[in-house]
């Protein structure tokens, strides 16, 4: 198949299509992870985005459902220098997701780093003519910014799901804004029964489950759009410990009266250095976010050493982090955060 990637500034890159024969739109972002392409593809936080892999060879070690972070692929489209196996191509095709290979991903990455993330269209097909490309140039300009799209309802669970460990010591209500499976796995490893609820579950319904603590999950899009969740968090203050990861960190900050902003090109990769301001230790972390916290009325406990952005906050009965302590993909340096979350429980 032929394939084109058209950016909102009129840039056109031609390559070879794989996966689905389709036309998709989204925010073009890049991730620097060298492994974990299955986890990237299935991460709900990438909903609404076309993902560029900076590592050039994708598909080397196949595809396994054991590596899924959700029930399937969540990215809108996929951009690689070279798709090295039939398994990765069939994987995208099975979930009706288009991919493009044979283009200069280094050029794309440098362009995003210098100018910021952009809206884009990825189209694959047997033959893509000049007139079609000109039409796409106009359509991509009119496509909504990611801050104008409600993405969390598309990836949150629609029903309550209860996950039980072999031995239950604690109960966690997980507000699902697009949770990754390995977050749930890490809670289960710590003997937490996990009650996974839809993002718009009311605070009184959450309290009916009598949880020991609440975790607000990762997820896609602009946190300021989730007014229902912010209201719920405010109502939960003072009732029990509250924790958050990634988008959950941003939502807790907003509920505390802080602010968030859209970053130029975000943090997406498995090598982000983060300093724990409580003891001075530095950890290498996995990250995937395009928004960040500022002006929060809480203790800042982690900062990013590359750009000094807020990477974690704490207050009485509150602990949240911007990075992904569950990794997948990325280093597991900060899995201890789950232990710290459990220690917040009142006994």
UniProtKB/TrEMBL annotation:
<feature type="binding site">
    <location>
        <position position="250"/>
    </location>
    <ligand>
        <name>L-glutamine</name>
    </ligand>
</feature>
<keyword id="KW-0547">Nucleotide-binding</keyword>
<dbReference type="InterPro" id="IPR006274">
    <property type="entry name" value="CarbamoylP_synth_ssu"/>
</dbReference>
<dbReference type="Pfam" id="PF00117">
    <property type="entry name" value="GATase"/>
</dbReference>
<protein>
    <recommendedName>
        <fullName>Carbamoyl phosphate synthase small chain</fullName>
        <ecNumber>6.3.5.5</ecNumber>
    </recommendedName>
</protein>
<dbReference type="GO" id="GO:0004088">
    <property type="term" value="F:carbamoyl-phosphate synthase (glutamine-hydrolyzing) activity"/>
</dbReference>
<keyword id="KW-0315">Glutamine amidotransferase</keyword>
<dbReference type="InterPro" id="IPR029062">
    <property type="entry name" value="Class_I_gatase-like"/>
</dbReference>
<dbReference type="GO" id="GO:0004359">
    <property type="term" value="F:glutaminase activity"/>
</dbReference>
<comment type="pathway">
    <text>Pyrimidine metabolism; UMP biosynthesis via de novo pathway; (S)-dihydroorotate from bicarbonate: step 1/3.</text>
</comment>
<feature type="active site">
    <location>
        <position position="324"/>
    </location>
</feature>
<dbReference type="GO" id="GO:0006207">
    <property type="term" value="P:'de novo' pyrimidine nucleobase biosynthetic process"/>
</dbReference>
<dbReference type="GO" id="GO:0006526">
    <property type="term" value="P:L-arginine biosynthetic process"/>
</dbReference>
<dbReference type="Pfam" id="PF00988">
    <property type="entry name" value="CPSase_sm_chain"/>
</dbReference>
<feature type="binding site">
    <location>
        <position position="288"/>
    </location>
    <ligand>
        <name>L-glutamine</name>
    </ligand>
</feature>
<dbReference type="GO" id="GO:0044205">
    <property type="term" value="P:'de novo' UMP biosynthetic process"/>
</dbReference>
<feature type="region of interest" description="CPSase">
    <location>
        <begin position="1"/>
        <end position="170"/>
    </location>
</feature>
<dbReference type="InterPro" id="IPR002474">
    <property type="entry name" value="CarbamoylP_synth_ssu_N"/>
</dbReference>
<comment type="similarity">
    <text>Belongs to the CarA family.</text>
</comment>
<dbReference type="InterPro" id="IPR017926">
    <property type="entry name" value="GATASE"/>
</dbReference>
<dbReference type="InterPro" id="IPR036480">
    <property type="entry name" value="CarbP_synth_ssu_N_sf"/>
</dbReference>
<feature type="binding site">
    <location>
        <position position="291"/>
    </location>
    <ligand>
        <name>L-glutamine</name>
    </ligand>
</feature>
<keyword id="KW-0665">Pyrimidine biosynthesis</keyword>
<keyword id="KW-0055">Arginine biosynthesis</keyword>
<keyword id="KW-0028">Amino-acid biosynthesis</keyword>
<feature type="binding site">
    <location>
        <position position="219"/>
    </location>
    <ligand>
        <name>L-glutamine</name>
    </ligand>
</feature>
<feature type="binding site">
    <location>
        <position position="221"/>
    </location>
    <ligand>
        <name>L-glutamine</name>
    </ligand>
</feature>
<dbReference type="InterPro" id="IPR035686">
    <property type="entry name" value="CPSase_GATase1"/>
</dbReference>
<comment type="function">
    <text>Small subunit of the glutamine-dependent carbamoyl phosphate synthetase (CPSase). CPSase catalyzes the formation of carbamoyl phosphate from the ammonia moiety of glutamine, carbonate, and phosphate donated by ATP, constituting the first step of 2 biosynthetic pathways, one leading to arginine and/or urea and the other to pyrimidine nucleotides. The small subunit (glutamine amidotransferase) binds and cleaves glutamine to supply the large subunit with the substrate ammonia.</text>
</comment>
<feature type="binding site">
    <location>
        <position position="45"/>
    </location>
    <ligand>
        <name>L-glutamine</name>
    </ligand>
</feature>
<comment type="pathway">
    <text>Amino-acid biosynthesis; L-arginine biosynthesis; carbamoyl phosphate from bicarbonate: step 1/1.</text>
</comment>
<feature type="binding site">
    <location>
        <position position="247"/>
    </location>
    <ligand>
        <name>L-glutamine</name>
    </ligand>
</feature>
<keyword id="KW-0067">ATP-binding</keyword>
<comment type="subunit">
    <text>Composed of two chains; the small (or glutamine) chain promotes the hydrolysis of glutamine to ammonia, which is used by the large (or ammonia) chain to synthesize carbamoyl phosphate. Tetramer of heterodimers (alpha,beta)4.</text>
</comment>
<feature type="active site" description="Nucleophile">
    <location>
        <position position="246"/>
    </location>
</feature>
<feature type="active site">
    <location>
        <position position="326"/>
    </location>
</feature>
<dbReference type="InterPro" id="IPR050472">
    <property type="entry name" value="Anth_synth/Amidotransfase"/>
</dbReference>
<dbReference type="GO" id="GO:0006541">
    <property type="term" value="P:glutamine metabolic process"/>
</dbReference>
<feature type="binding site">
    <location>
        <position position="290"/>
    </location>
    <ligand>
        <name>L-glutamine</name>
    </ligand>
</feature>
<keyword id="KW-0436">Ligase</keyword>
<feature type="domain" description="Carbamoyl-phosphate synthase small subunit N-terminal">
    <location>
        <begin position="1"/>
        <end position="123"/>
    </location>
</feature>
<dbReference type="GO" id="GO:0005524">
    <property type="term" value="F:ATP binding"/>
</dbReference>
